[in-house]
Design a protein that fits this description.
heterodimer, A: alpha+beta, Aldehyde Oxidoreductase, domain 4, seven-stranded mixed sheet, 18 helices, B: alpha+beta, Ubiquitin-like (UB roll), DNA polymerase, domain 1, 2 domains, five-stranded mixed sheet, 5 helices, 5 strands, globular, binds FE2/S2 (inorganic) cluster
Chain lengths: 792, 173
Amino acid sequence: MTTTSTTYFGKPIKRNEDPRLLTGQALFTDDVDLPGMLHVAFVRSDYAHAWVRGVDVSEARRMPGVVAVFTAYDLGDYWRPGPLLVPPPPIQRLVFNIRTQVPLVKDKARHVGEPIAVVVAESRYLAEDAAERVYVDYEPLPAVVKLEDALAPGAPLIHDDLGTNLNAHVIQEKGNYASAVERADVVIKRRYVYDRGTAVAMENRGVVAHWDAKAEQMTIWDTTQAPIPIRNGLAAMLGLSEHQVRVIAPFIGGGFGPKIMMFYPEEVLIPWLARKLNRPVKWIEDRRENFFATTQERSQIHEAEIALTRDGRILGVKDVFLHDAGAYAPYGLTVPINSQCTLLGQYDIANYYTEFKSVFTNKPIVTPYRGAGRQHGVFVMERLLDAASKELGIDRVEIRRRNLIRPDMFPYPNVIVFQDFAPLTYDSGNYEPALDRVVELIGYKQFVEEEQPRLRAQGKHVGIGIVTYVEGTGIGPYEGARVTVETSGRVSVATGIGTQGQGHFTSFAQIVAEQLGVPVERIRLVTGDTAEFYWGAGTFASRGAVVAGSAVYSAAVQVRKKALQKASEVLEVPEEEIELVDGWARVKGAPHKAISLGELARRANPLRGAVRSGTEPGLEATDYFGPERGATASGVHGIIVEVDIETMQVQIKRYVVVHDCGKVINPMILEGQIQGGVAQGIGNAFYEQLHWDENGQLLNASLMDFLIPTADVVPRVEMDHVETPSPLNPMGVKGAGEAGCIPVGPLFAQAVEDALAEYGIEINEIPLSPNRLFELVQEAKARRAAGLPAGR
Amino acid sequence: MSTHTISLKVNGIPYQRTVEARMLLSDFLRHELRLTGTHVGCEHGACGACTVLLDGQAVRSCLMFAVQAHGHEITTIEGLAPDWQSGSDPEEMHPIQIAFREKHGLQCGFCTPGFIMTLVPFLAENPFPTEAEVREVLSGNLCRCTGYQGIVEAALLAARMMRAAAVTRSADT
Ligand code: FES
Ligand code: FES
């Protein structure tokens, strides 16, 4: 990318996709309507853990409108545990026990909502009627609900043949933590609990499959973030060639991670049903199902310690944690590895010991959800620093500043292995300016020295928080893109990733517009349709803009070369004298000497005459991009809160984000991503908690009971940006999709703790709630009354 | 299952259909009339994605049966700018739609029709809303992508645009 001024790149250009979405004309999966379409309802386990001794479908089969009812035994060879999506990284001494989900329960249900039978009927109403007449003979078993119970002696076994509930055991080290402790002036130890949440994309999942028996062609509409891997996997399962299967991820109503889980039982079954019954079949998840049939994230318990010098230098960190995998672990170790690798954050820490055990529980499957375990690591580190700040009497900003990685230390090696299987190395960064900027924007000094004492004197409970974080983004393996100038002068761009609201239709168009000098609205992007692009991996780990964006960039650069070459032949001037502007190739300084890109495209694909052999027709190029490793984005969040001591409601007064994700393609889209991420982080910190009873029943599986933040509680996020380009891709971009939500938990905890300082509480858990804060304050009061020291 | 014949107007067009008593209005609009711009996020009245206008008032179509709409007039997102088609000038959309695009009030767009239909009667009755009022009226609609800021700004911008248009209209007459 040239550093000279740009026309489209880096501009807050309005989105191409909006009008279709705003007028109700965008196609979502549930909008697909095919003649003769059948509808599906699932019979799901009522128990978190139970032997299934029998399934009686005879009455259901006789219900009106019912076409078929299937159980696991009707699937024959098609019944197979799902693939392991992400194999464990190459880490020495690693233990990993593979257990993946099955299409329908055969013998044992391992979490509430696991599918046991599938009913196909002429309408969804009839399918649900019949599903109620399927009788399952359960033999309930004690369930493993609490994470810390999973490995206890005598715990019920979830996968009996395994003989243990251990899914994985991983130890990673940088330097030598024991030596750090020897040199330390203080060692601080804490226990942190980070409970699970769920993504709650506003659109539930869904799959529609259409088998065209005559053409032997399967078409699948799927709310997936990864259409190409879904195509490849389903083709293999169905015994079809990849060319016989087309997977379309149309407009998707929010992804956030769980929509890249592969393969959901429903995803495997609906195409099979369509072929078996030779009719189109649709399944749309309802909200209740979404609460236990869609994957969830997060439940970790950390035993952490930090070794420091008296002046607040971090000598080492040790963290040993338990991670809840849920009933199966198809996604490998991505989430806990992210926790390990994000923990060290922006700090220069020479010695780090990190160990986790991932365990099976009788809860829904855990896969990445926005942040994907990163927030757990950030929570641990930032809370340790807050504890250290208090213990050592060093201001919280100052203790952070003293430990930041300096700009001259990049690329910075963190040694341990990251989710992309490579040793974690930060590509670039400049952390202090962002910290300074947040301190300045939020008025830290003034707040702490003047405002807070004044408000406290008035009996108000106000607090401030400032935390930092990094985010590994834009990991491999690769993505591809094809850029084509059509003879009309319009440009089409195809990539293999799915898009769920990130604005790729526009940001990718901007990349192409910049190269070809074509207005953004004349560039049509196709994503998420395997018929349009064959290769790719999917949208995850904040990699869309980085990896697919770089592929789009490389392809556009090549088309630009072709256009200039062709224009130089036609206009008979050297390429250097030609510029591409507004859809024209024209001679610099002589704009009347010009030819339109459309005309160039036509000439590049003549119908008659001779073309030099070896020449590729058309103005088109396809290219691929695979980064050698992930790009590390970073940021600092600041918050001011007020706690109402009567209700324990927390009101956010200010929220400031200074973020560095390298070069920015579209600041409007970026700010939207951050604002939305912060809102999800706030939900995670204070509103959203899944409540399970001792049998593993989810008690709040509705949007009435599981609260996500609304417009009256999410504040306006004030933002600023620092720009440290990544050296790892041609545009210098880093991902931004998850940054907003990652540090909100520790930020919230720090500020609320500060607001309630007079009670001396310490917050070592997320999510919080008014109830929980009330309890913490009561405990603190009781401790004080008993003459015990404040704190935990 | 008992069925009923209902007549109603949707986006100005009269329809007569025979439906099961239990069919939700949201399903009727989406799957019988194929007006799929109305989205369904929860089917228990919590998310607001399915909001439509019933005789001009915002209602949740997942909380009503189609038979209850008999004799009434429904407006869905498709009825706001009925002549707009893919490829038309975005400026020809309804001012609220234009404002949403202008202020980046949508990401995935799934919640968007519900927010817009909530705002239509609100802005008609409150041409000068404050930010707090906008946040209050929108607090019954859930959006998981935007963090609401763009939506709130879009609502305020739409109010300004509609006021300006009203002034122009009254000046013309
Ligand atoms: S679908 Fe009607 S309120 Fe959620
Ligand atoms: S824009 Fe995605 S839910 Fe609102």
